[in-house]
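[Q] Does anyone have a clean structure-token version of this?
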Amino acid sequence: MKISLITPAKKRSKNGNRTTALRWARILRDLGHKVEISVKYEGQNADLMIALHAWRSASSIKLFRDIYPDRPLVLALTGTDINEFIRTDPKPTLKSMETADALVCLHDLAVDVIPKKFRQKLQVIYQSAPPLTKKRQPARSHFDICLIGHMRDVKDPLRGALALREVPESSKLRLIHFGKAHNKAWEKKGLAEMKRNPRYLWQGEKAGWQVRRELAKTNLMIITSLSEGGANVVSEALVAGVPVVASKINGNVGMLGKDYPGYYPVGNEKALQKLLLRCENDRAFLADLTRRCKARAKLFKPAEEKRRWNKLLAELE
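[A] Here you go.
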């Protein structure tokens, strides 16, 4: 099939939607399809559309359906769709859901957010990550924690640093943060935090291979976001065998499981500090987190993501 893949993220963007679109394009091409990625649909011929973002891609979805009323249309629900626009501007968001033949989400709990009448259309396709190329060797001189996320409000990026400010002097906890500042204000905050907090090391934006190298030697990964649609950094940690500590939001719980013991209340650095110290000092607890993450990893491997896409497209043909 000839597939039009629509993402609101521009060509040189490194945000999650662009990364997802590029990975899906590779998967779909491996399955034998021709894929054209566009920021906006402009009437080109296609056998099927896959659109990321119900709200931002609403005009593209409408145009494709107007031109090709009988051709299949898949809508991928992003984090801002299910965490923001479904409440703040529901009309175009819900119209896109209604128009689509199938809905795709990235974690298990998205089903609880969307209207019941659309739930039969919904399929979970977890974002995959490649395995590490070498065996993990966690650091011993420090108990390193890895945070992978840009410096912007929704990521609550300094929550981990705040949690480490008053840990006991004997602790070996250290937070290594990869991600660029969204603006000058966040850059100033990050630099100021490093100056006052020797346990916080902000490294800025890094290439994918550098992130994977850090995952190979870190003791733990944290994700502190206020909301997520299904963060790929969680997929990367799971496939790498890295235990995760996460804010208790739908996007994280929907990937790690409802019974996962590594959650802390959103925005609560005291609870996060307690959890991180437990990870450092309670070997059995850290081993349990690691075991649970490894058990989930099979859901996030490239072959499983490919299998789910192949199954969905076969149902739509």
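[Q] Thanks! Anything notable?
[A] The longest strand covers residues 143-148.
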